[in-house]
Amino acid sequence: MTFRPLLRIGPVRRFTRNLLWSVDLLGRPLLLKYTRDAVEAREEIRGHARLSRHYRVPALRAHLRVPDGHLLAYERLPGGTGQGLLLDLLNADEPGGDLRTYMDELTAAYREVILATAWPAELAHVVRKLYWDRAASGGRLDTYYAGKDFLIADGLIDVPVSRLNTYTLKINGRRHHLDWAATLRWLRAHFATDEPVWAALTQGDPTDVNLAHPLAWFDYDTAGMNSIPGEFANFLWYASALGGWLVPTYNPAAFSGHPATFAQVPANTPEIRRADVDRTTSTIHIDYTPRLSAPRRAAVTAYWNQLVRPIADRLWPGSDLSDLLRPYLAMRILGVYNLADLSPEDRLVLLARLAEAMSPTFDPTIYFCPLESPCPTP
Predict the structure, then answer these.
(1) How many domains does the chain have?
(2) What is the overall mean pLDDT for the chain?
(3) Could you tell me which of 358, 231, 369 has the C-alpha nearest to residue 291?
(4) 90, 293 contact by CB (below 8 A)
């Protein structure tokens, strides 16, 4: 007779401030999530309830107050090392049929729910955590950057970011201008207005570790009525920069169960080819090659063509998507990681990407595609 333990506990994984681990309790597979933040725990429970009416989510089996925090027990969906997430489809060398089918299902589900629930919502009804709260007084923009200065790229371009406005940026042969202080002021002012925004019911943080394969949604503390352009900017930036490059570089523990992620980092890390300052003309030269693996390019293209474009055509016919996406994209660049804490090379690329996003010539159909790849059709 085979003995089956009553309790089996898997390794603990850290995602930002939260801990996750798998448990088998009396033969029932569970995923436990521990958070110290009581408000976040309540939002997670509410968000799960909201989302469960429209999207496939694992059942919430229990939620408990425990010493110094809260514990939530979810049904654990099938998975394992290198299995169970959109991330695993993106870690392949080439985009396969599974990824194409997945993106068809994902974008179809979003199209249906977004169009059914979209409305110009007052901010009181909108989830503000990832954008408005981070731009507000005392939020991440203040915590990271208020009253602080740092070099554009130590050892490469030893110019403080506070003096960026006194230089012309020549990035991959194109002229740009970036005023660091003015950009921060603009973001704070943009997210300080109380104007309604087009919002719809979504999970709010659509990363490749929050999307299960087969299709389901994890992580619910931002679930609810989310800004639709913010939703789009979040997925596009995560798929094209954070998920394959920055997050595995600066938070590798989050991918301990998906080791193929690290093999793909070089395929998703931009290469700096030139970084220097011409003091006589006050010009900073930055040449870099964007990189994105073929599966990530395919996912971004499908998301744009099958979700962003059709939704935009319905909700904002004739509008410039660049203006709609710009503030949310800038917040994702500045409000996830403190640029001062990154390596000089990574900081330099992100400042270049910020300058490109803030440019009047910003075109998201080009921006989210590496130069060597075909871009989404407008």
Answers:
(1) 2
(2) 92
(3) 369
(4) yes
Q: Looking at the domain assignment, is residue 240 inside a domain?
A: yes
Backbone angles phi, psi at 66, to 5 degrees: -130, 165
Greatest Cα pair distance, the chain, in angstroms, is 82
pLDDT 10s digits, 326-341: 999 999 999 999 999 9
- Residue 373 confidence (pLDDT) above 50: no
Tokens of 91: 């870690």
Last residue in a domain, options 53, 75, 97: 75
| CA-based end-to-end distance of the chain | 63
Secondary structure (3-state) at 332: helix
- DSSP H helix total and E strand total for the chain: 14, 17
Residue 194 has pLDDT above 70, yes or no: yes
DSSP state of 191: T
Half-sphere exposure of 352 (CA within 13 A, CB side): 28
pLDDT score for 260: 97
Residue 372 is predicted with a pLDDT of 42
Q: Helix 321-335 to helix 180-190 angle, to the nearest 10 degrees? A: 110
**Under 8 Å between Cβ of 325 and 246:** no
Domain boundary among 30, 48, 75: 75
CATH number for position 29: 3.30.200.20
Verify that 96 and 149 share a domain, yes or no: yes
51 with 185, same domain? no
In this structure, are 179 and 53 located in the same domain? no
Please give the Cα distance from 157 to 171 (Å, whole number): 13
DSSP 29: E
Distance CA 24, CA 91 (A): 28
List strand residue ranges (DSSP E) for 234-331, in order.
271-278, 283-289
Residue numbers of the domain that contains 290:
86-367
Same domain, 223 and 147: yes
Q: Please report, for residues 74, 107, 263, 268, the alpha-carbon distance to residue 242 in angstroms, rounded to integers and kept in the order given.
A: 26, 20, 15, 9
Q: Which residue in 88, 12, 94, 100 sits closest to 260, CA to CA?
A: 88
